[in-house]
Amino acid sequence: MSVAEAKKRFSEIMGRVVYGGERFIIEKRGTPAVAVISLEDLARLEDPRAPRKGIAAIAGGMADFPEFGEIMDAVYRERQLDKGRKIDLDADVPVRYRHA
Predict the structure, then answer these.
(1) Where are the domains of the chain?
(2) Alpha-carbon distance 53 to 50, whole Å?
């Protein structure tokens, strides 16, 4: 949302943030510049003890695991060496995809 639009709709935006839990990004000249979030969201972001969700929870949990960095380095090295598996592009076998 542009600065001009945010100015016009500021009261509406505040209501949607406070009562609806929405978040808004305000852009300046097409570049994201400011986020409008609730005080509850801000408190959660500023509290290092706040529970995290998704990948942030996993990454945060690794802080207490000093070997994590070394393990990840080894994983990346192995993946760089892995050239994948050979496949026969001329095979008449249909390729089946399975979603996990």
Answers:
(1) 1-50, 51-83
(2) 10
What is the Cα–Cα distance from 60 to 80, expressed in whole angstroms? 26
Question: What's the CATH code, domain 1-50?
Answer: 3.40.1620.10
**Which tokens go with 40?**
């509850």
Q: Are 3 and 26 in contact (CB under 8 A)?
A: yes
Tens of pLDDT along the chain (100 residues) come to 999 999 999 999 999 999 999 999 999 999 999 999 999 888 888 876 766 666 656 666 666 666 777 777 888 888 888 777 776 777 666 656 555 5
Residue whose structure tokens are 């996993």: 58
Which residue type is seen at 29? Answer: R
Cα four-point dihedral sign 84, 89, 91, 95: positive
Between the alpha carbon of residue 57 and those of residues 4, 22, 84, the distances in Å are 37, 22, 31
